[in-house]
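Bumping with the actual sequence this time:
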Amino acid sequence: MPIPTNHEQPKRKTAKENAYNQLQQWIIDGTLHPAEKLYDTELAKALGVSRTPIRESLQLLEVQGFVEMFPGKATQVTEVDKESITDLLPPLAALQALSAELAIPNVTDETITLLEETNARFATAILNEKSFDALKIDEEFHQIIVDKANNPYILPMIASLQAHVRRLFFHNSIVLTEKSIEEHAQIIDLIRKKDGLNVSSLMRENWLRAIQEFHSLKK
């Protein structure tokens, strides 16, 4: 039989990429605890790779603020500062707001349908109190819009900030509420109407509201 030659090839990840993704996930979900010391030999054995990709991954994680490296001494997971939400969300909100505005010319009817279906799944997770599922679906919703912005400079910045949002979620600083279901629906409607100014404003509000909710929980 003839074998197609124009199909998309799956991207193979390097040992460094696999190690980086796994270590980041363990730090985010708390498998590797804040202030825990990390040893490249132990991590290499656990992940079935050499020490080189582990060291390279730890260097990347240090740049992102997930680990601290003390040359000649130790490498350890950074502490979680729940108050950092007030520094984290404003730049993320600004980038998400810009993405929504840039996405409008690239959005199709299929995109709108996908956003509506994703928000319906998000609503189900919220109403069933499946908070982690809701977080993942919320990321999906916003990623659809970010992808449609089609800006290669925005993508890595949002991905980096979003990783810290997930970490704060696991340490109970991020709470998703039913209000987000309504805001998502309004965002979809504004995108459909090609209202860049108002969708940008609402997107920013959608992200910044989490700061207010965080401080309300502390009272």
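The tokens above came from a reply further down the thread. The mean pLDDT is 89.
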